């Protein structure tokens, strides 16, 4: 049996809670547009601004409350996502892809913990079995090209699918966010390991689905009240 999520008595969101997402939305649009036209001088710095701005949105939406572990897990997921986004810039001495996999793997573990413990509204829906099928299919498609990263990619796929499946237990907003995050990494994996099969327009598509997915997860968590335990 699946353990029931913790019951948290919450206060209502401030009426202006969504304002915190405006800077994230604007910079996301600029970043995606820069990718679409090949403006790397704009795309690279704006990419590193995305997760900090989304963290600001989370803090703005949860302001005035004693947030504790749920907010810590949410911010942890965004921190590790930021480190994954900036793997080449932050860790120039290390191979980029393994660092990305490790950082995003930790981000997904934070999401799984938070969504399971504080945000889930019910059991896993039957349709969530599609994520297990997705994992098997992706390994079948990518395995000949993975080389020494095969087992690392397989392990990452488990936690990525785990976030999407756990999100399916939550509100529709969180569930769609989890699906978009999965879609983003699916397209990215195909671009990395099967580049000849992917058209150029999939470059901005990776970040469009990534930004939308992360933003919806955070917005859905705020709406669910998981990070808004009233201050003592």
Pick out its properties.
transmembrane helix; TMEM86B-like; globular; membrane; transmembrane; mainly alpha; 232 residues; 71% helix; 9 helices; Lysoplasmalogenase; 0% strand
Question: Care to describe what's here?
Answer:
The protein is mainly α. 71% of the residues lie in helices and 0% in strands. It contains 9 helices and no strands. The longest helix is centred in the middle third of the chain and has 24 residues, at 96-119. The two termini are 33 Å apart. 41% of the residues are buried.
Quick summary:
With 232 residues, this protein is mainly α. It has helices spanning 21-37, 40-61, 68-85, 87-90, 96-119, 130-146, 150-167, 172-193, 202-224. The protein has 9 helices and no strands.
Number of strands: 0
Spans of at least 5 consecutive residues with low confidence: 1-10
Average pLDDT confidence is 91
Strand content: under 5%
Measured on Cα atoms, how large is the radius of gyration? 18 Å
Helix fraction? over 70%
Element string (H = helix, E = strand): HHHHHHHHH
> Biggest sheet: strands, sense, closure?
none
Quickly give the structural class.
mainly alpha
Distance, first to last CA: 33 Å
**Number of helix segments?**
9
How would you sum up the global shape?
globular
Itemize the secondary structure elements and their pairings.
Blueprint: H1 21-37, H2 40-61, H3 68-85, H4 87-90, H5 96-119, H6 130-146, H7 150-167, H8 172-193, H9 202-224
Helix pairs in contact: 1-2, 1-9, 2-3, 2-9, 3-5, 5-7, 6-7, 6-8, 7-8, 8-9
